[in-house]
Amino acid sequence: MEPKTGLYMTNEWIIDVLTDLMAFARRNNLTVTAETLDDARLVALTELASAADRKAEMMQSYESQPGTAPQLTSERDHA
Prior knowledge:
Elements: H1 6-10, H2 12-27, H3 31-64, H4 75-78
């Protein structure tokens, strides 16, 4: 499994909540509820990953634009 970073990490709590609810449903023989919560968990994972990808793409696009990335030069370069 890849490390969790960015947007996913900040919103990981929703996955934990859905997983806990799904476990509760299974323990209490709420089969359809458990299956629906599993579906919801997968949708949430997909949406969070997609949002993190979009954020990474936006950052890369921003950083690749001229004049947006900090220029690392020494004072000697300006003399």
